[in-house]
Each structure stands twice: as C-alpha cells, then as structure tokens.
Write a structure and sequence with these properties.
Elements: H1 2-22, H2 28-60
C-alpha cells in the first residue's frame, strides 16, 4: 500500500510540476483566443446539428 501511495504522489507531483513550469509560457492572449475559438466551435457545431436534423427530417417525409 505504501508503494502505491508513493507512486501516486510521484505522478501527481510530476504532473503539477509540469503544469506549473508551462504556465509562464502561456500568454493571456492565447488563453483568450482559445476560449473564443471554443465558443465559436460550439455554436457552429450546434447549428450544423440542427441543420442536419432538419435535412434528415425533410427527406423522411
């Protein structure tokens, strides 16, 4: 059991250290751009889904 705890602690520590070392290299502009692109992608995906449902519904009639 102790070995498992050490392994988990090591993995969490490694992941945390990696994320913290990457944080200063990410500009706030990149984060904002990513958020905006995610929103646009979600909106486009939603409307494409509605359009495809409308096309398939009209063909079934």
């Amino acid at each position: 059991m102790a070995n498992f705890d050490n392994t988990l602690s090591l993995k969490i520590g490694t992941a945390g250290g990696t994320l913290l070392s990457m944080a200063p290299n990410i500009a706030s502009v990149d984060i904002l751009r990513t958020i905006i692109l995610a929103i646009i992608g979600a909106i486009v995906s939603f409307f494409v889904t509605l359009f495809l449902k409308w096309i398939t519904k009209s063909k079934e009639k």
